[in-house]
Input
Amino acid sequence: MKSKAWALLAVTVVLASAGAALDRMVQPVWSAARARQPTLRLESATAGLGQGVTLALLGGFRALVADLAWLRMYVLWERRDLPACDSLIRLVGTLDPRPLDFWLNGARIIAFDFPVWRIEAEGGYERVPGSVQERINREQALAALRHLDDAMRFHPRTPDLWVERAGIELNRLQDLSAAAESYRRAWAEPGAPYFAARLHAELLRRVGRRAEALAFLIQLHPALPPDDEGAAAPRVLERIQELERELGVTAERAYRPALAAPGRP
Amino acid sequence: MPDFNASCLRIFFIAQNTAREAARQKLFSFVLILAFALVLGARWFRDFNFGAPELKFLADCGFGAMAFFGSALTIVATAQLFFSEIESRTALTLLAKPVYRGEFILGKFLGVLAVIGVFCGVLTLLLVAVLWRREGELMAEFPEAFRSGRSVDLGTVVIAGGLQWLKLAVLAAFTLLVASFAQTQLFAIITGFLVLVICHLQYLAQDAYARSGTWLGRMGGAALAAVFPNFQLFALADSLAPADGPAWGDVMRVVLYAGGYVVVGCALAVFSFRQREI
Output
């Protein structure tokens, strides 16, 4: 019995020594892998799915379990179960951070649906004071922005996340400057929609930074393909002319579109 | 000192016999058919897919099947093939001949390694075929989405399959180590599954201990991380996009990591088995 215990101890010590050396060898690989993947936090969120999550972590069915968690979240969304929905939205992002749709829809639910549920739970729009409603809207908008910050760790060059961020800053926080900046960041990413550039300029104009808006649109316009409806080049030209009038730009200094071949700046 | 060539030959025969026995077992066929069905049937699970691109979803299902059923096969087959020799007393006959205990353990390990190699190889090939075919269909259906060519790097799929095999090899070595001192097959199987769980989640425990801030906690976390290999490392080839393939340097480090644990695990199993009374 005593010799068996000694043998077991010897096995553990040898294993630990060898493991420590091997662990050092793969440390750079592990650090890089952790930077790419979410830190799998199992504290509170796992309670919602129990063994399914364990199965996903052990067996590798991450996509499938994330999908099932999302399905479950929708069921709870219909019941307006805010804490459970919140947990599941975070859990899905943790389990499988690769699909963009989970992040975008999750942020929308946090920013736009949760405040409505919270206000209704506190007595409804008629009874809850405006200041409380504003506080709730702000809290949820900030939570959604934090959710999008997490998403950007996994999708750093995705314009959709910046567009979503701008939408929340604009519609929930009424922070026009922040929204303008987010639309600018969206436009700077490859594959950005043209409306991001137009909205950036429009928001600059609304906050009184008209000269900046004009300079941006003058730089943008030659790059817009004239035959693409989405690019809306004639609309951008109209807006340039409006801004020039508002800023009192003389006819000599006014922008004249060149007939050069368009290309993205 | 045993003759090296003769020793290798004896190990080969034991491994061959082990692999043959494993292939004859219903468990192997059952697990292989289940995993096969899951990989082939993943296409019909698409209705439950809300986020991941379809090809990524198919690949995840395939690797999930490989990891889940492969782990079950590795643990059960290793314990069963080891204890069947002891319970049927064939180990006594075998070890009475000029066969060393170390050769017996290595033969058993290599036999199991071959079986899980076939399992992972077949499933990887099947997954490659499924992904290739489905990607071709999608390319025909949505040519504009594939303007820059194929989106799945099949080489990465093969690397991921190889890493799964290495993970199962480490698991087999640890199960064999447990079996070398365990008194019953059931104990070895249950402990094998516990090892699997710990190896997948050890980094979380390490984090939790580190966060506790105590000297004892940090030591405990470090010890846990040293004794049990980190199985999350074997999911290195997570993305299938050609641009996101794993670096060869990283793959080699993980291969050496697995190899190190296999060598140490098998050596300790030999040490432990030599102390054992059969």
Notes: The radius of gyration of chain A is 26 Å. Chain A is about 70% helix and 0% strand.
